């Protein structure tokens, strides 16, 4: 599991996928999310603007699982 540290209260799903280095640009992240390749805490996520917060677990098909660590709101 890869730990992704953020310094803000939240990060949007598409930005997180790009920040983690899974894709090179936001349009690729948007496509992955729209194609149903992303889960947050076990649930399918099709919202590219979904707010990801401290403790969330993100699964991207065919990639390493991500755990978000950041400020506790």
Describe, in plain words, how this protein is organized in 3D:
- The structure is a single chain.
- The chain has 73 residues and is an alpha+beta fold.
- The protein has a single domain, classed as Structural Genomics Hypothetical 15.5 Kd Protein In mrcA-pckA Intergenic Region, Chain A (Roll).
- 22% of the residues lie in helices and 32% in strands.
- It has 2 helices and 7 strands; from the N terminus they run ββααβββββ.
- The radius of gyration is 11 Å and the shape is globular.
- The termini are far apart.
- The mean pLDDT is 92.
Q: Which key features would you list for this structure?
A:
single chain, 73 residues, alpha+beta, Structural Genomics Hypothetical 15.5 Kd Protein In mrcA-pckA Intergenic Region, Chain A, 5-stranded mixed sheet, two-stranded antiparallel ribbon, 7 strands
The computed structural class is alpha+beta
Task: Determine the fraction of residues in helical runs and give it as a percent range.
Answer: 10-25%
**Mean pLDDT metric:** 92
**In whole angstroms, how far apart are the ends?**
23 Å
Q: Name the CATH architecture.
A: Roll
Strand order, main sheet: write it out: 1-7-6-3-4
Number of domains: 1
CATH superfamily: RNA-binding S4 domain
Which blocks of ≥5 consecutive residues have pLDDT under 50?
none
Query: Class, according to the CATH hierarchy?
Result: Alpha Beta
The tally of helices reads 2
Series of secondary-structure elements, N-terminal to C-terminal? EEHHEEEEE
């Amino acid at each position: 599991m890869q730990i992704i540290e953020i310094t803000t209260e939240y990060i949007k799903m598409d930005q997180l996928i790009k920040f983690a280095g899974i894709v090179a640009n936001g349009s690729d992240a948007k496509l992955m999310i729209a194609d149903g390749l992303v889960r947050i805490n076990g649930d399918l996520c099709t919202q590219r603007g979904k707010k990801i917060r401290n403790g969330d677990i993100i699964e991207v098909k065919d990639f390493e699982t991500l755990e978000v660590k950041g400020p506790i709101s």
